[in-house]
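Help! Submission page says 'invalid entity' but I think these are all valid:
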Amino acid sequence: MLKISAEKLNELFDKIASQQTLYIPVDREDKCAEFKKYESGMTLSKALNTVRSAKDFFLPQTENLAEFRRSGKTIEVKDIRKESEDFVVFGVRACDAKSFEILDSVFLAEPVDTFYKNRREHGTIVTMACTRPEETCFCTTFGINPTVPGGDASVYFDGESYFFVPFTEKGKVFMASISDMLEDGDVTKLSEVQAKAREIMTRLPLANLTTDSFGGEKLMEHFNSEKWAELSEACIGCGTCTFVCPTCQCYDIRDFDTGHGIKRFRCWDSCMYSDFTKMAHGNPRTSQLERFRQRFMHKLVYHPSNHEGEFGCVGCGRCLSKCPVSLNIVKVMKALEDK
Amino acid sequence: MNNDTLIPLVGVVTDVRQDTPDVKTFRVNALEGGKVFEHMPGQCAMLSIPGVGEAMFSITSSPTNKEYMEFSIKKCGCLTEWLHAMDVGQQITIRGPYGNYFPVETELKGKDLLFVAGGIGLAPLRSVINYVRDNRENYGDVQIVYGSRSKDDLVDYQEIIDEWMADDNIQVNLTIDNSQEGWDGHVGFVPNYVKELAPSTNKTVLVCGPPIMIKFTLAGLKELGFSETQVYTTMELRMKCGVGKCGRCNIGNKYVCKDGPVFRYDELGALPDEY
Amino acid sequence: MQEAMIKRAKELLADGTVNRVLGWKKGEFAYDSTPSVFETAEELERDFVCNDFTQANLSKYLIKESRKEGKILAFLKPCDTYSFNQLLNEHRIIRENVYVIGIPGGPKLDVEKIKAKGISGITGISKDNFTIKIETLYGTESMPFYEAISEKCSNCKSKKHVEYDELVGDEGDILNSKRFDMVEKLENMTSQERFDFWQGELSKCIRCNACRNVCPACTCENCVFDNPKSGIDQKAAADCFEEKMFHIIRAFHVAGRCTDCGECTRVCPQNIPLHLLNRKFIKDINSLYGEFQAGADRTTKCPLTDYDVNDCEPSIVHERGVE
């Protein structure tokens, strides 16, 4: 298998970055990781995952859709779309890589969202296999194998070297672009590391969580469950879970008066927010119970119902560690399946 | 790059008609004349004044109208207040058409039709009614039961009097909530009036109006012996994208903007009561 | 302590003093808990938890809970009683519907500080004097207790309860904290350095509104940032100025009412030290109007909503603004 030794990793990054924009996870001062545009000298984070998911690359928190100029009674629409630059995201975990498929099922369905598609076409995803899963991980619940993370190409770390395997055409092009820096390597140690990670997966606290009780056919049963009142009682109605979630894709469209014209942008929105469904003449979800229920019903019932059984969660565990009051999808699943 | 549905087209308002104290009907044309796009009865469009807001409105005119589109809009929020203040010649942005439509070419074909509308709820049904009138040979009996708070609140009153009531092939039953001077027609709520009229149960029903009216109308129809598979309605929830992606207009797993706005009652009954 | 709390809660439920108990419910792991209302002794025995990680301030929940049928027992830490008092001062909580038991405060621990040490896969945490022992999927780790103390407890202002019906455990004192040290450090920066500091921190904001929604001082029925009629409603920053505007306006709005409970910083998913904005206001109020602690009692009026002939003149803004 082709590899590069750990001490040469930054040379590799320099090479990639000389060809196209490269993003890697790096540690912030507060020891949390985030994806940053690579600049020479940056060190790859050892953290398992970034606080914000990798969805930002394809569905940024805010993005301009169009510009308008109004003068008198006339309106001029300006299409401001530009072809995205090619870029590489290095070090995406299996959970986030899977989240792109879920986002694809929404944004690439007809009518295709060209803003999303544009970035998707120009982005190369280089995933990294997990070797140290954490207690909040439950990707296996959704059929994800974190030791085989997918994407356009994958990287496996055995403690000394990074091994590369391409999966898609884009991945092969990426590999070809760095092939002169790679050498053949022995995978004995890598196999051990992989075996160890797989063994850990079986011992994770959430290893036994299953989706058996969920899916489209459970729509009315779960919607009408009496458990929602208790489950949602502590929810403060913030958007933390939504915004750190790699699969939450709901957005709002807003106008901003720049003083020189109107900028129409879209931004992440949260079904947990009180105004999410508010109309001039009413609101179908006036309580936090209804809003809380919507979020989890969407992931566990509505999404699979509309997308051939595919759940809207990848078990990344971000909501488990970030919810201000420690509510999360795992607690919801456990409560709802508990007959 | 291909067109993106989120980037709107520009249309121009070519006529404004005050229908009721709080409803105006706007005629919209493409800048170069004609229609901005084609649609089917029951479909919607996103209208916007950039910087003010964007919202979904049902297209009130029939697709058989080849010259323009019309929107009957009730004043009830920021955007609609702005729209009500605008004059002929004002440009607006428009995108669509969105959603499904009343099955005028399939399930409704050859059927006796009963339209039940309340207040501004006539707006989406007017498109179907005029479509049916223009393809009269394809449908059986047509009956329209329409009511509003008062005579002044009857949308399209002039068209109803001059065209629909003058049409021998259509039975029109109007009602208002409370009696008032100058009104010698029926007085009472729409659901009760439907029960009084006791239409034959072989009709297919298209209902639109305030949620409470729809609810009681449906109960009344059931009492009369109608089944849920005979009744269609059209829904409205908050929408932003219009294409089932922004995630807010769902009832259960159905998006009103994409899978609706037209639902048959048995379909709606299988969904959570969250609308 | 947890056992004593459960015992007392069960007694108060049994004798009808209260019909519900507001506390914390056990989570999935050793360190997570969720504010919860308990209605029966069985629920309390099964799920109630109070440990080194039960940081959440429960006072804000009492706005809603005190409007329900019957009286509710609430366990409040010293700092939480300040929020409680402040909410009483603002007529947000119906006092007679709440039975407050004051419980000792922290120092509480923050699992993020443990994780920041590179300790991951946590399956159990125990305390041994000044050391905490952490069981992980990858073996046992340990670290000094004080290094895991949460931000809000690391500069504790008071271990004294300012409002309660009874206490479980001993009463503490108001402390001489060093909580303004970091504010002073910021004040001593040049304006450019200070701008860069806040630019760096606030640009991390993802506008999740967790700080606002958890804040016991943010109790508006409809926040200006959610109200389309306010003209400044927003869900995301449309430009780099708006990024800061939300937090600065919020700090202004809670000035004089913020008790420095530290919840904003605790809940921030991006670890922005939001409490520093509020502390700057507290420090300024102290120096301009004399020592004032919001929520300390039920009688002292907040200097910002009260007038005194000795109040500083508006020109102070200019005088102090000169570098």
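Support: the input was valid. A stray whitespace character was the problem, and the output above is from the cleaned input. Residues 1 and 186 of chain A are 7 Å apart (CA to CA).
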